[in-house]
Amino acid sequence: MTVLDFAPAGTSIRAGVATIQLHDDLWRITRSTGEVLGYVQRIDSPAGHKYVAKRMLPRQRRFLAVGEFWTVDDAMDCFRF
Hints:
- The chain has one helix spanning 72-77; strands spanning 11-14, 17-23, 26-31, 36-45, 48-57, 62-69.
- By secondary structure, the protein is mainly beta.
- The chain has one domain (11-77).
- It has a six-stranded antiparallel β-sheet.
- The protein is globular, with a radius of gyration of 12 Å.
- Residues 1-11 have low confidence and may be disordered.
């Protein structure tokens, strides 16, 4: 399990998960305990911005794409469960 013990500027907490914006197109999603759940990445598409949610699988040392969403809030919501 990857745990972060700090909360940098740009952190927001809602529904039991913390969102940390790493740069314009990438957010780290963690539990309130600091455990990293995954990332949300903004990508450009012909129809506009899409947001890809990627769940971290620490035992397998890889990420699993959970889905693509039209809003960043929808992408972040999939980490609440």
